[in-house]
Amino acid sequence: MNASEGSLHQESGCFHCGLDIPAGSEFYTVIGGQPRQMCCPGCQAVAQVIADGGLENYYKHRTSEAASPESISASEQLRAEFELYDHHSVQSHFVAELADGSRQATLVIEGITCAACVWLLEHHISSLEGVIAASVNLTNHRARVQWDEQKIHLSDIFIAMHSIGYQGHPYHPDKEEQLLEQETKRAMRRLGIAGVFTMQIMMLAVALYTGAGASLETDYENFIRWASLVLATPVVFYASRPFFQAALRDLRTRHLTMDLPVSIAIGGAYIASIWATVTASGEVYYDSVSMFTFFLLIGRFLEMKARHRTGKAGNALLNLLPASAILYTDDGGEKIVAANELQQGNRILVKPGHTIPADGVIVKGSSSIDESALTGEYLPLTKREGDKVVGGTINVENPIDLEVTQVGASSQLSSIVRLLERAHEEKPRVARLADTVSGYFVTAVLIVAATVGLVWWQINPDHAFWVTLSVLVITCPCALSLATPTALTAATGTLRQHGLLITRGHVLESLARATHIVFDKTGTLTEGNLSLHNTTPLAKMTAQECLDIAAALEVHSEHPIAKAFHRLSQKHQVIAADQLKNHVGQGLEGSIAGKRYFIGKPAFATQLCSQQLDFTDAPDTEGQWLLLASETEPLAWFGLNDPARKQAANMVQQLQSMGLEVQMLTGDSSAAVKHIARQLKIDAVISGVSPEQKLQHIQQLQDNGAQLIMVGDGINDIPVLAGAQTSIAMGSATDLAKTNADAVLISSELVRLPQALRLARRTRANIRQNLGWAILYNLIALPLAAAGMIAPWMAAIGMSVSSLVVVGNALRLTKLDRADRLE
Amino acid sequence: MSIIYLLIPIAIILAGIAIWGFFWSVNNGQLDDLESPAHSILYDDDEHLIPDDAKPPKPAEKPE
């Protein structure tokens, strides 16, 4: 593998994960006989494992790029963490012992992006010695693994997954999860019933239609009708039950939706057909009933699948908490226990790199704690003895002893979830155009049908029933009920292809109407991690020399600041530092070639220098500044910041030109907020707010009539995502955030947002056209039906044509605007 | 024509059996993953099963 060869595969990004390749980086893996460029050692290592395992076909089969693996350098730590899963007390919650002595567990896997991932995982895990069976489900990202405990441990399986870039977690099914599963199965059974029986009924209907008139003898005709009745009954009573239930609920809440006309159409036509069958008179509509049910069920099923898609990672909240904790026993020993067995007052040890298992107070030691899971901010906070820490956050630097203060439902993490539930309840309901129209429409149809029935009762009682019925069937809101779903399905599919997954029905409608769009900062408008943007040498050394020293000092630290330097040290020859010492919240010291160096806060770094510096001496006031100093003099300033995403400025400008008010709402209160706001030209900025205040802010906006879209990613954004009228989570967001958002921006490409908004506006127009057409058709057909002039075959043709027009119109939404397509 | 008195009931019974089979497969978890099986059939990891003379000629590889 020689990087200087001219035969390099020219890629726009990393061959493994598709991210941009940092300038000057040289990571290659030979895949398919050619060296491929990688963006980081993480991808390189993963690709190497895949290639070594003979699984290179993965790259041929996949349809989307892999998730970029986290740094793989911390493997010792990670191994220790995974080994916790080998303990019996921890396993008792998710591992089953089978009759033949092998063990079986269901795991949730993060990082699955397409079907090739499933192939890769199954092959890689199955090839491990001691693994009996492994199957991975692409839909819910769960793996079922069976292994022989004598030959392999669960931790080895986790590590094997990690080595090809996936993270496994134990899967604990909760109640909600089981309900979802039941719902899916029920929906499938309904679809099956409707599908199979509709086919049968259609077959019989052909005989009825072609034989109508003289050629079919009455006996046969009656028999076929009875057969159709038998077949249609399960469709009406089992398959269409959700429509009837929803219609009943609508009547109770006095809020008419499409479910009511649908139920009236299905129920009415079915009852009328029974009447016709029993009395051997009139017309039967079993075919229309079952076909209609089948089509609507397909639409609902697809919608439901999209909704479940984001909730795949199991009970995401539990995944935030570790499975185990190290408890000090009364005699001073250490014991590993399952995290959910912890009680108030327990003393526990949290090693660096481990997640804190419960809320507590530090009783010994000090460290910096990464609270990004809760606050979304990437810089760890320094915590000392007596400070409170929150379960679910990560201990970064030193081992600490905690006294547990809160567990379970009273912990702070759970309180965020409660806030979330409250926000859900208070979420403003979007009045949907189709529902409003159908509300009026249903009322009108019922009044007309009643009037027609009464009038015909006066004229000719024998005909009254049939004419009334044909009014109901003709106006049977086929086109009307198809008008919205077809447009929405087409637009939803288009958006999904372009990286925006819509999970709730109202999203397109409320996107089209939005007046305000509110962004979280960290991880949404910005990349969410620090990178080095400025090096200012102060002494005679070059910038490169200073960087090398800094990289050597930071090489073993897991602090986010240090990670910015890790990339550098991987790029260049590293000089080695020894006697590294970590001063919590201050910085690092170490010695290189006999000289001592300090890096960190200016006051710390220059403690031995003749010249003392502080932050005011930094080149400017933006971002984070670190000082590198030797024992005698300061050497260099390093400027670190969290850069804005590339397309952010473009997106903000597009949104503003579309007439939306763009706001930024962030928990961060540093100077970086202003900098980003100025860079992106966002005027309305609210910084330094808690999750509660964020929720309050958007509720206040919504109370003042704003139609609001919230875009965010962190756990701290979850309540505000749940409370916003429309919420969009970034693809890189936590699973809990994704489950609670109305839509997920899978590709994290911000420029998709204005495109989605434009498509949503077109969809709205399209729905209006469809509704207009449906109403026009009804206006023509209704008087004719009321006059008793419509034969069933005319009604059938009319209904089909109007449905085709509606569907054809909706299909126009399968393409983006021409300008957007070019991007 | 009176054969339909026999054929239609048979058709209904067959449809019933089909439904029973479908319910069984849903409850048994056969349809839990609707996506990956459709793809997995396309993964040609059976290259070692194809005889050499039946393989299409390889494109000339670039020198390493």
UniProtKB/TrEMBL annotation, chain A:
Transmembrane feature ranges: 191-211, 223-244, 256-278, 284-302, 437-459, 465-488, 771-787
Enzyme Commission identifier(s): 7.2.2.9
Domain HMA stretches: 103-169
InterPro entries listed in its UniProt record: ATPase-cat-bd (IPR021993), ATPase_P-typ_cyto_dom_N (IPR023299), ATPase_P-typ_P_site (IPR018303), ATPase_P-typ_TM_dom_sf (IPR023298), ATPase_P-typ_transduc_dom_A_sf (IPR008250), ATPase_P-type_domA (IPR059000), HAD-like_sf (IPR036412), HAD_sf (IPR023214)
Membrane topology, from the record: Multi-pass membrane protein
One GO term of the biological process aspect: copper ion homeostasis
Pfam families registered for this protein in UniProt: ATPase-cat_bd, E1-E2_ATPase, HMA, Hydrolase
Cellular location(s): Cell membrane
Catalytic activity: Cu(2+)(in) + ATP + H2O = Cu(2+)(out) + ADP + phosphate + H(+)
Primary subcellular site in the record, as a coarse category: membrane
GO annotation, cellular component aspect: plasma membrane
GO MF terms, alphabetically ordered: ATP binding; ATP hydrolysis activity; copper ion binding; P-type divalent copper transporter activity
Entry-linked PANTHER family: ATP7, ISOFORM B (PTHR43520), CATION-TRANSPORTING P-TYPE ATPASE-RELATED (PTHR43520:SF5)
Protein family per UniProt: Belongs to the cation transport ATPase (P-type) (TC 3.A.3) family. Type IB subfamily.
NCBIfam families: ATPase-IB1_Cu, ATPase-IB2_Cd, ATPase-IB_hvy, ATPase_P-type
Protein's UniProt name: P-type Cu(2+) transporter
Lineage, highest ranks first: Bacteria, Pseudomonadati, Pseudomonadota, Gammaproteobacteria, Oceanospirillales
From TrEMBL, chain B:
The organism of origin for this protein: Amphritea pacifica
Protein name: Cbb3-type cytochrome oxidase assembly protein CcoS
Gene name of this polypeptide: ccoS
Superkingdom of origin: Bacteria
Keywords: Membrane, Transmembrane, Transmembrane helix
Transmembrane segments: 6-26
Record's keyword annotation contains Transmembrane helix: yes
